[in-house]
Amino acid sequence: MGGGERNWPVFCLNPAELKEKRDMAEDDKHAIDQDLTDSIAMLEQILEVMPQDLMALRALYNAYNQRDCREQAFEYLGMLADVACTNNDSETAEFIVKQLPGFEEQFPSEVAVQLTRIQAVVGPADGQPTVASEEKPASTTDAEIGEELALAWKLYEENQLSQEEYSSVLHDLTEVSSKEVDVPVSVLHVLNDRGFSQMNRIMNYLSSRSGVPCVSLLNFELSEQMTDVLPLEIAVRDGALPFDFFGNDLLVAVLNPFNNVLIDKVEKAGGHRCHTYLVSAEEYDIALGKLRGMAA
Q: Does some domain include residue 168?
């Protein structure tokens, strides 16, 4: 071609037009960011009134994911998992299973916990091994320790356990659940066995957060009637131990006050309305030993 003046092709933008387009795009980006900020604020207000609203939780997860705010996005994915597990919501659980792999590199242990919980609702994803098959021969199934894994996550998420403490609890729960033990596999047992120095704070938090009062089982004398109320296996494996009656209602000691599924199981097995009370792992084991002795 000749060396004359260069003509811009009609389908190209000259430098001035290109700068104008870039400026317009930047303005659009700021507008979108502001819209996203406004949406997040509105959705968080909804959650203050309806903390288990699936639409708001999922929208907030998507919004923070769009902003590449990984920690906030994973936090809301965890909240979605709480609702899915509580309500046995398989559709939401399947959505969570698809999202979790994107967080494995940043939050490996937390993703493993959430996956274990969700598998109890939907089963393992196709071609994906369960945590049980990777880490332990299951003498206690993942579904059975799922509520304890959820409790450990809650304590970590609400700053009751440090990252190091949380990881240790997960390790111990997984390890103990692979063995034949004669007491329930519970977060409280793990913390007690580790000599956790803030047990009173944890107990007060669990009671306050769940609305389940704490009692000392040392103040109650177990009667032989308690051996006939529930199968001993429930006290040994599930962490629910009957210790008295109030009228026709059964008073039950528990180690995880958030495990509503267990309470339904106890009421069906015992045929009585139940009132739950949080107890320490140490006092639970003492009462369990007495119950065993009377049942022998």
A: yes
Domain extent at residue 87: 32-181
pTM as predicted: 0.57
Q: pLDDT tens, 78-132? A: 898 888 888 888 888 888 888 999 998 888 888 888 888 787 776 654 444 443 3
pLDDT tens-digit readout, 13-54: 445 554 554 555 444 444 445 666 777 877 787 778 778 888
| 249-254/240-246 β-pairing | antiparallel
CATH number of the domain enclosing 264 = 3.30.300.160
Report the CATH number at residue 143.
Answer: 1.25.40
Same domain, 158 and 238: no
